[in-house]
């Protein structure tokens, strides 16, 4: 199993926790049917925080897992009250960006929540029988009809691959941020309650650190000044990185004397997630903490590396956008 965990997301503790991941890995090693399921909210353009999940999915494909990705258009429309046409359009863009980042379409499946078959919606209705309002309120706080339906739909997203109609994957892994753990706990409880009736088993999960925005808070589409988007212009990348929060000292003299604090630095976080191998990262950390590199130079290096990474991604995206028959990849909602 350790051989399967050599990706730098594991060795650098970006993926830092799990529920039953060991059981999922054991099933993978035995050649049993395993699947990785995750979802995206189609409410804007993907950013580097999204790409971090794309990178996870690529890794799971590389070790033999099939990947299924839900476009959460029902939740976007009902709970977040996003425009319906824009939601579908953004969903298609997410799929193109995922493929451009390197996901193998032969080992992946994409779907919209509102364009599934009958059995998926039957699960939502059946699950409602064995979940109490007290449970829902404990997880989601104040409830509305839209939130209730959305929560039940999320559980169906997580558990439906176990049905024979959807492949009979009895070992489901869901990679999420730790803030999503309540949804996983609910899905595991529901699986227990339907073990006898539907043969469901508890899903596994891994937990990753969320990539922070350039100001040190969560990277989010709703805070565009502090996020790097996958369609970002090179000029915008340069300006945003130049303004990013660092772990530098108040003056250059002080930094040369005391060294920097890379654990506080958003630029070093980009290096950690995307831009450097282990040897390069360790060398840069050493240079920083000993005051041998200043923030300006460090930012210039990061800018060039990130600009090149986004340039390559944009090139692949344009090729996919021009050549991909998207209807062969995903069924679009009819309205």
Please give the structural blueprint.
Elements: H1 8-11, E1 15-19, H2 21-29, E2 34-40, H3 48-62, E3 66-71, H4 73-78, H5 84-101, E4 108-112, H6 118-127, H7 133-140, H8 145-159, E5 171-177, H9 181-193, H10 195-198, E6 204-208, H11 234-242, H12 252-258, H13 266-275, H14 278-289, H15 295-323
Parallel strand pairs: 2-3, 2-5, 3-4, 5-6
Antiparallel strand pairs: 1-6
Helix pairs in contact: 5-15, 6-8, 8-9, 11-15, 13-15
**What does the main sheet amount to?**
6 strands, mixed
Radius of gyration: 21 Å
CATH architecture of the largest domain: 3-Layer(aba) Sandwich
The H/E string reads: HEHEHEHHEHHHEHHEHHHHH
Average pLDDT metric: 95
- What is the top-level CATH class of the largest domain? Alpha Beta
How many domains make up the coordinates?
2
CATH superfamily of the largest domain: HUPs
* Low-confidence blocks of residues: none
Measured between the Cα atoms of the first and last residue, the distance is: 45 Å
Number of distinct helices = 15
Structural class: alpha/beta
Give a structural overview.
The chain has helices spanning about 10, 20-30, 50-60, 75-80, 85-100, 120-125, 135-140, 145-160, 180-195, 195-200, 235-240, 250-260, 265-275, 280-290, 295-325, and strands at about 15-20, 35-40, 65-70, 110, 170-175, 205-210. By secondary structure, it is α/β, with parallel strands linked by helices. It has two domains: about 1-210, 3-Layer(aba) Sandwich (Rossmann fold); about 225-320, Tyrosyl-Transfer RNA Synthetase (Orthogonal Bundle). The chain has a six-stranded mixed beta sheet, with helices on both faces. Strand 2 (about 35-40), helix 3 (about 50-60) and strand 3 (about 65-70) form a beta-alpha-beta unit. It is globular and about 70 Å long. The N and C termini lie far apart (about 45 Å).
């Amino acid at each position: 199993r350790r051989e399967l965990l050599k990706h730098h997301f594991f060795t650098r503790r970006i993926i830092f926790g799990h529920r039953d991941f060991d059981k999922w890995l054991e099933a993978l090693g035995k050649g049993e049917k395993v699947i990785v399921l995750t979802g995206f909210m189609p409410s804007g353009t993907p950013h580097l925080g999204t790409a971090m999940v794309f990178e996870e999915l690529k890794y799971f494909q590389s070790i033999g897992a099939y990947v299924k990705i839900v476009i959460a258009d029902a939740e976007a429309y009902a709970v977040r009250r996003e425009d319906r046409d824009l939601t579908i359009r953004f969903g298609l863009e997410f799929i193109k960006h995922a493929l451009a980042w390197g996901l193998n379409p032969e080992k992946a499946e994409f779907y919209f929540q509102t364009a599934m078959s009958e059995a998926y919606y039957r699960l939502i209705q059946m699950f409602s029988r064995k979940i109490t309002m007290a449970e829902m309120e404990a997880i989601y706080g104040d409830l509305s009809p839209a939130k209730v339906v959305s929560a039940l739909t999320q559980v169906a997203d997580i558990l439906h691959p176990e049905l024979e109609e959807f492949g009979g994957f009895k070992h489901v892994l869901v990679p999420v941020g730790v803030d999503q753990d309540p949804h996983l706990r609910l899905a595991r409880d529901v699986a227990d309650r339907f073990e006898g009736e539907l043969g469901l088993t508890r899903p596994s999960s891994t937990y990753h650190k969320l990539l922070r925005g350039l100001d040190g808070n969560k990277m989010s589409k709703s805070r565009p000044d502090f996020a790097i988007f996958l369609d970002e212009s090179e000029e915008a990348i340069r300006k945003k990185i130049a303004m990013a929060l660092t772990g530098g000292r108040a003056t250059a003299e002080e930094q040369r004397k005391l060294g920097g604090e890379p654990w506080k630095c958003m630029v070093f976080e980009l290096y950690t997630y995307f831009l450097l191998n282990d040897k390069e990262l360790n060398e840069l950390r050493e240079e920083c903490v000993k005051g041998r590199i200043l923030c300006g130079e460090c930012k210039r290096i990061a800018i060039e590396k990130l600009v090149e990474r986004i340039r390559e991604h944009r090139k692949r995206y344009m090729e996919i956008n021009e050549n991909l028959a998207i209807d062969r990849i995903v069924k679009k909602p009819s309205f």
